[in-house]
Specification:
Elements: E1 2-4, E2 7-9, H1 11-19, E3 25-31, E4 38-43, H2 46-54, H3 61-64, E5 69-76, H4 79-91, H5 94-104, H6 112-117
Antiparallel strand pairs: 1-2, 3-4, 3-5
Length: 131
């Protein structure tokens, strides 16, 4: 296992994460609960990054406010496109962000288990998270 700030990052998750790397970039929204506090981020390794958020390996906003559920994400071919989209979404008002989530994920399911079990390249966006 790889050690990350005192907690172990399971080799199986790390291995799956590497397999899925076709150098895509992801914009994602995490939520504390349905209609709760939101966080928008960007990464080139969605599985690993969400794992880090869920296990409080990331200091800052998500750790402080317990924002651990993956509510929405989308895939981009380039880092520039993903960063531009992240900046765009961060400027949006809350209502627009909620509509974006609810369009693809009306039940607010946590999508983390979905992305760990299915190839990311087969979906542009996925559904799910509950309170």
């Amino acid at each position: 296992m790889t050690e990350k700030r005192g907690l172990s990052f399971p080799q199986s998750v790390e291995r799956e994460s590497r397999k899925k790397k076709m150098k895509n970039f992801y914009v994602y929204i995490l939520a504390s609960k349905r209609n709760g506090t939101l966080y928008t981020g960007v990464t080139s390794d969605l599985i690993k990054r969400i794992y880090e958020h869920k296990n409080n390996l990331v200091d800052g906003f998500t750790k402080e406010y317990h924002i651990h559920s993956l509510a929405w994400y989308e895939i981009h071919d380039t880092a520039e496109a993903a960063i531009a989209r992240e900046k765009q979404i961060k400027k949006w008002n809350r209502t627009w962000k909620l509509k974006l989530i609810e369009k693809d994920n009306p039940d607010w399911r946590d999508l983390y288990d979905d992305i760990c079990g299915k190839p990311l390249d087969s979906r542009l966006r996925t559904s799910g998270m509950t309170e």
